[in-house]
Specification:
It contains 6 helices and 11 strands. With about 210 residues, it is α+β, with helices and mostly antiparallel strands.
Length: about 210
């Protein structure tokens, strides 16, 4: 991480996503699909789809060239008894939401039981870090050495908002998203479009199912 911080000229962009509908649909999906769908599974799925449209997100600066990875392998941080570990969901762009959910649950359990194998933690091409469960509203991640992009997700915050013709106040569930990227690979506009795509997908969870 120190080498990454010293060698990668990163910049950061952020947005907020209304995941009220996403949170509401999760219990229904558990009944219909027979698997618990975590918010992380949605984030991994959204990253997989976003990279298909914005492939430079899994690019890497290699000398004077940019090398784009052939696979979308999402490494996600897990707080395990032995410390922070990063299992990897391989080919996230090709897998369905239930497939990702099952794999994410299996890898998380292995991480907490200290049973991860080498193949479970290698091949990361893009990263996800979610500190929402720890009450953190927002934060900026450090791009891991094998990647050029990390998505950081904060806590779900109930937020009063004005909606409707009568300006009725309703409470929506809002999260903060931040993206850290290597400027040698991705421009500010490209990163903004990439993050906006992720935000839009999370706000329309039916697209992710």
């Amino acid at each position: 991480m120190l080498k990454s911080k010293l060698s990668k000229p990163c910049f950061y962009v952020g947005s907020k996503a209304d995941i009220t509908d996403l949170m509401a649909i999760r219990p229904k999906l558990r009944k219909s699909l027979g698997v618990k769908i975590t918010t992380n599974a949605f984030y991994i799925r959204a990253l997989g789809l976003a990279v298909q449209k914005y492939p430079l997100a899994v690019g890497k600066f290699d000398g004077n060239n940019i090398r784009v990875a052939e696979r979308v392998n999402v490494g996600f941080a897990v707080n395990a008894p032995q410390g922070l570990v990063v299992p990897v969901v391989k080919d996230a762009g090709e897998k369905t939401l239930p497939e990702i959910a099952r794999e994410e649950a299996s890898l998380s359990n292995k991480a907490r039981d200290n049973q991860l194998r080498l193949e479970d933690i290698e091949g990361e091409t893009i990263a996800l870090s979610n500190l929402g469960a720890y009450g953190i509203d927002s934060f900026l991640g450090i791009v891991p050495p094998p990647t050029s992009t990390i998505l950081a997700v904060g806590n779900v915050i109930p937020t009063p908002m004005y909606r409707g013709e009568n300006d009725k106040i309703i409470v929506r569930k809002i999260i903060s998203l931040s993206l850290a990227v290597d400027r040698r690979v991705i421009t500010e506009v490209y990163a903004a479009e990439f993050l906006n795509f992720i935000t839009d997908e999370l706000q329309n969870p039916q697209r992710l199912i």
